[in-house]
Amino acid sequence: MTDTSTRALAAQATRATTTRPRWRRALVSIAYFVIPIAVVIGIWQLVTMLNPPAPFFPQPFAIIANLWDLMFGSPKAVQQVFYGEFLQTVGRMALGFAIGAVWGVVVGTIMGLWRGARETINPIVEFLRSIPATATLPLFIILLGGGNDMRVVFIAYGVSWFVLINTSVGVGSVHKTLLDVGKVFRISLARRLFRIVLPGAMPKIFAGLRIASTAALLLAIVSEFMLATDGVGYMLVQAQGRFQLLNMWSWMLALAILGLIINTLLEWIEGRILGWHRQSKSRA
Amino acid sequence: MTENTTVQAALVVDHVSHVYGSGPSAHHAISDLAFSVQPGEFVSIVGPSGAGKTTLLRTLAGLLKPSEGAVIVDGNRITGVPPGMAMVFQDYSRSLLPWLTIEKNVGFPLEGKKVTKAEKKAIIQESLEAVGLGGFAKRYPWQLSGGMQQRVAIARALAYRPSLLLMDEPFASVDAQTREGLEDLVLKIRDTYGMTILFVTHDIDESVYLANRVLVLSRPPARLAEDIVVNLREPRDQITTREDPEFIRLRGHVARLIHSGGKPE
User: Fold this and answer.
1) Which residue of A lies nearest to B159 if distances are taken between CA atoms?
2) What does chain B look like in DSSP terms, one character per residue?
């Protein structure tokens, strides 16, 4: 016992002396991210400058400048349009994601806990999720009309599968001994669910949420391609129809930034909730 | 088998049988097993591998309903997990909650029980100190060695304040030196807390070293091959007890029983 703790201390000491300061590590990881992008943009910029007539591929600096203008430039009305449309998309994406995630966790937990439920529901799940979610949009429009509700339900539907399947697998794979621990110490059923089963399934649930967040943005944009009057998807189609390629590219750039922000946010939350998981795995 | 005792038995196993499955593929794990354990006794259960030791322990814990017979704890026939009973599992790496710190793991049995925060804190601290891990409250299970993790599992059982402690091959996967330390720890805890302990093991020496009584099970379907009283000098000592001729005689006797599959010589 003592020798293991001294060994751990020694390991900590060597790690402390060999690792670089935090800010330097952060700088290096930023560089790894920024440099490849900078290279691609640089080549693109050079090519478009050498060959002026390339109407479908505006110069990247022009795209960035245009997006900057839409976001922060004048007049105020343009800015309002940008943020208005952007928030429409973010709003329905977030709502659809939340509803789909909750639904997925609830049904996935039921499936993970009871074999009967799993065997009954599984064929239905396998069949429905084989239909590409995007292909169900026309059906949702017929059933729910062309309004915002339809889009939210559509996103929730498409997103739920990823969460549902991961939750079901995660809950089902919580080790039997842990469940026995809950029973032996006479922990109530609800506490066993929230203190043993769901935390144990959390790594898998989170993996599902990560995929679901990407799908949510995708489905939000696709849903705005049909019968929409607002949102980024709508603006993209409009810009394309009017041949405003600079605007089209700017909206795409804005979406890329949104996607990055969502991913970073989820990664941060995951680090907070699942720090134990990553660290315990790295030791095993 | 319920002898004419004046004290109420802590545990009575009343002709318990357990069968997995049915028809020709049915597996008879336990067959008509009967014994009783007095309060404060340390009883080891040994048997050939696959003798249904774990089945028996899960039945005693109320996790498994016996096909026949009954388990009586403190005079009450159990229908589920009885109160006042704790268990230490074989697989410590899977019995601790990896997302909780050591202190929260130890305090886990008190979840939803009527205990104030201050009481809970005191119980956790006391339990951790009883197993020699007072300074490790804020660590996580996976930061500790196997032997230390099993100490945490024992501390968790202590925090529950059980009168009956079931241990399912708890030291099967730790190295020999760690194992000796843990054996003496269990004996110390028994003396401090005065609880009844049922200790399942496949290690013959361990079964004799620890117990007041060794129950030897036969090959499956498990029956009681012999109920052996261990009268070794207290306190037990890893070196002198194991040199004691009586210890050597007993371990030889148990070993022969097990090697013959539980049939008397």
Assistant:
1) A185
2) ---S-SSPPSEEEEEEEEEES-GGG-EEEEEEEEEEE-TT-EEEEE-STTSSHHHHHHHHTTSS--SEEEEEETTEE-SSPPTTEEEE-S-HHHHS-TTS-HHHHHHGGGTTSS--HHHHHHHHHHHHHHTT-GGGTTS-GGGS-HHHHHHHHHHHHHHT--SEEEEESTTTTS-HHHHHHHHHHHHHHHHHH--EEEEE-S-HHHHHHH-SEEEEE-SSSB-EEEEEE----SS--TTHHHH-HHHHHHHHHHHHHHHTTT---
